[in-house]
């Protein structure tokens, strides 16, 4: 039976990064939980062994159950009747297997029934699940909504809702509406406060993943007469209380096992989470950042299965008397697919580690006052996490789409048929660059870090690290790429034309991403020689892309923008 953790040594490499020792120490509060829970780790080695064992369980379930059910779920899909959703039979089996294995609420504290995992190994589990079935990851991965309840809910809400998630109940985040997609300031679902102080919801939500979940986080307009984000609040809705029905399930291109619903709210009782008017400004922003990291993990998992399907087919398929993998055009495609996979994965786990760091300090700050050095570190880590998140979501999802495309191409005509998994993978990949913020919106989030110098500082921190002699040439190439990037930023900034900056933003962001990924891959190769081959493929690819963007920025001036207007 396949195990999707143990058959991929790259995952163990990323799990055992040097930053993990501090992350685990902060998460475990110097391992004090061992005094209360017999399954809590005694030390760092014990904690890492625990993560390994759980990830092996995830890998076994994914290789033996979830991947096996993926095709049937894609064909069967969920159904809706009398306002309620019924999952495909394979989805029900997957959820039951995850519940029995205790894989729900992984990142929640032990006192609420969770495993107390840091975000990094939890994201690794999401990567593995996505390789097995991207559609199922959309259901399993929404347990991450519990993080928002834990972060912003009161203690009573935590005690009533989070243990249910840890026991296997499902969640959803009800944000978008027919007239409010990416522009969530236009949300109009109405939250009304009754005379007794309780709240009810009325209106419609659309494109809600797992919309018939047990527990919903809902963005709604609580302030009468407002039309912008300052009038929005966050609420938690319990399906047991009634008032929300599924009007229909969307008929989608891909991720068909995940019910994407249109919901109607009719006096649905709910509870306020945190403070009014902070729903979009604070709570949804935190929720979306977590969701974007989750989609980045989904994209990496899709890149993994696309690469593996393409590689297996290329080894097996014979043309003109030899396996097609022996043909250089096919071999080149595979090598670039692997480089893109490795680059997006190393950025994924670098981002997850910095998210872990700042969120852990935020959590500790609820228990005691942070020292000055801790507050400074939290602020610095959050800045890096905020800068890397749009990069990994944007670039990771684009690479997933490219790898799925190339997987089909290597299969040729067979790849166009439903007989092979690559056809489903291709359809599933497409949504990753759209939901939880399109690639274009990730560029909008990332460009400020180009202009403010955040990416420059990140690059400089990587450049300052020592590497072994055989990597010096790579390091010098990366320095030249960084120079081209910084010169391009300076060229665009000096023109002081917002329209021109917007036009060039994607190119600047991609230049930063290619360079940062290159440094991360170099540092991975410095720790592990197995990354050396992929690193060299990446460097040739990334250097050409950076030079291409630099040349375009140097040639195209503001007076040429008229040519690009529709």
Write up what this structure looks like.
By secondary structure, the chain is an alpha+beta fold. Helix content is 58%, strand content 11%. It has 17 helices and 11 strands. It has helices at residues 9-15, 20-27, 44-76, 89-100, 119-132, 134-140, 145-152, 155-166, 279-316, 328-364, 372-411, 421-429, 439-452, 454-463, 472-495, 498-527, 532-555; strands at residues 79-81, 84-86, 171-174, 190-193, 199-209, 215-221, 232-238, 244-249, 260-273, 318-319, 322-323. Helix 9 runs parallel beside helix 11 (372-411) and helix 11 (372-411) packs across helix 13 (439-452). The longest helix has 40 residues, at 372-411. It starts with 8 loop residues before the first helix and ends in an 11-residue tail after the last helix. The mean pLDDT is 97.
Which terms summarize this structure?
alpha+beta, about 575 residues, about 60% helix
The proportion of residues in beta strands is: 5-15%
Radius of gyration over all CA atoms, rounded: 24 Å
Q: Distance between termini?
A: 54 Å
> Average pLDDT value?
97
The largest β sheet comes out as: 7 strands, mixed
Shape call: globular
- Tally of contiguous helical segments: 17
* N-to-C order of helices and strands: HHHEEHHHHHEEEEEEEHEEHHHHHHHH
Share of residues in helices: 55-70%
| Structural class computed from helices and strand pairing | alpha+beta
Quick one: how many beta strands?
A: 11
Instruction: Give unreliable regions as ranges.
Output: none
Strand-helix topology:
Blueprint: H1 9-15, H2 20-27, H3 44-76, E1 79-81, E2 84-86, H4 89-100, H5 119-132, H6 134-140, H7 145-152, H8 155-166, E3 171-174, E4 190-193, E5 199-209, E6 215-221, E7 232-238, E8 244-249, E9 260-273, H9 279-316, E10 318-319, E11 322-323, H10 328-364, H11 372-411, H12 421-429, H13 439-452, H14 454-463, H15 472-495, H16 498-527, H17 532-555
Parallel strand pairs: 3-6
Antiparallel strand pairs: 1-2, 4-5, 5-9, 6-7, 7-9, 8-9, 10-11
Helix pairs in contact: 2-10, 3-4, 3-5, 5-6, 5-9, 5-10, 7-9, 9-10, 9-11, 9-12, 10-11, 10-16, 10-17, 11-12, 11-13, 13-16, 14-16, 15-16, 15-17, 16-17
């Amino acid at each position: 039976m396949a195990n999707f953790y143990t058959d991929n040594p790259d995952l163990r490499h990323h799990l055992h990064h040097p930053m993990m020792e501090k992350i685990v120490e902060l998460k475990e509060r110097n391992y004090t939980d061992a005094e209360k829970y017999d399954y809590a780790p005694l030390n760092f080695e014990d904690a890492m062994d625990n993560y390994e064992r759980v990830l092996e369980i995830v890998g076994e379930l994914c290789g033996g159950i979830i991947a096996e059910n993926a095709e049937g779920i894609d064909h069967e899909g969920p159904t809706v009747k009398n306002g309620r959703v019924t999952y495909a039979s394979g989805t029900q089996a997957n959820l039951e297997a995850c519940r029995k294995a205790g894989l729900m609420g992984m990142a929640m504290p032990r006192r609420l029934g969770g495993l107390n995992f840091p975000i990094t190994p939890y994201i690794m589990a999401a990567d593995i699940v996505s390789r097995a079935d991207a559609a199922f990851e959309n259901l399993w991965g929404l347990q991450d909504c519990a993080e928002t309840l834990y972060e912003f809910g009161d203690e009573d809400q935590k005690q009533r809702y989070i243990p249910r998630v840890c026991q296997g109940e499902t969640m959803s985040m009800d944000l978008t509406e027919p007239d409010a997609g990416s522009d969530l300031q236009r949300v109009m679902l109405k939250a009304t406060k009754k005379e007794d102080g309780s709240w009810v919801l009325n209106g419609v939500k659309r494109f809600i993943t797992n919309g018939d979940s047990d527990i919903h986080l809902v963005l709604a307009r609580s302030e009468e007469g407002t039309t912008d984000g300052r009038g929005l609040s966050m609420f938690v809705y319990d399906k047991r209380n009634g008032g929300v029905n599924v009007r229909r399930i969307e008929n989608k291109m891909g991720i068909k096992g995940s019910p994407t619903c249109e919901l109607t709210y009719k006096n649905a009782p709910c509870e306020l989470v945190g403070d009014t008017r902070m729903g979009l400004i604070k709570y949804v922003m935190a929720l979306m950042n977590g969701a974007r990291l989750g989609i980045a993990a989904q994209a990496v998992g899709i890149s993994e299965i696309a690469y593996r399907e393409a590689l297996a087919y290329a080894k097996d398929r014979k043309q003109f008397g030899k396996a097609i993998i022996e043909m250089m055009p096919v071999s080149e495609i595979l090598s670039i697919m692997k480089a893109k996979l490795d680059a997006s994965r190393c950025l994924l786990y670098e981002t997850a580690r910095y998210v872990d760091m700042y969120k852990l300090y935020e959590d500790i700050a609820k228990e005691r006052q942070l020292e000055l050095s801790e507050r400074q570190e939290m602020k610095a880590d959050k800045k890096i996490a905020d800068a890397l998140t749009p990069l990994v979501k944007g670039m990771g999802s684009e690479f997933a789409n490219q790898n799925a495309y190339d997987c089909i191409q290597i299969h040729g005509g067979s790849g166009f048929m439903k007989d092979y998994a690559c056809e489903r993978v291709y359809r599933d990949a497409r949504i990753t660059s759209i939901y939880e913020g399109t690639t274009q919106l990730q560029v909008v989030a990332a460009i400020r870090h180009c202009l403010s110098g955040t990416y420059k500082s990140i690059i400089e921190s990587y450049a300052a690290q020592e590497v072994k002699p055989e990597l010096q040439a790579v390091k010098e190439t990366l320095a030249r790429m960084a120079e081209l990037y910084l010169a391009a930023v300076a060229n665009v900034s000096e023109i002081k034309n917002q329209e021109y900056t917007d036009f060039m933003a994607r190119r600047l962001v991609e230049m930063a991403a290619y360079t940062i990924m290159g440094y991360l891959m170099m540092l991975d190769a410095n720790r592990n020689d197995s990354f050396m081959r992929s690193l060299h493929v990446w460097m040739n690819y990334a250097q050409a892309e950076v030079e291409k963007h630099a040349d375009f920025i140097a040639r195209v001036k503001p007076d040429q923008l008229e040519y690009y207007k529709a």
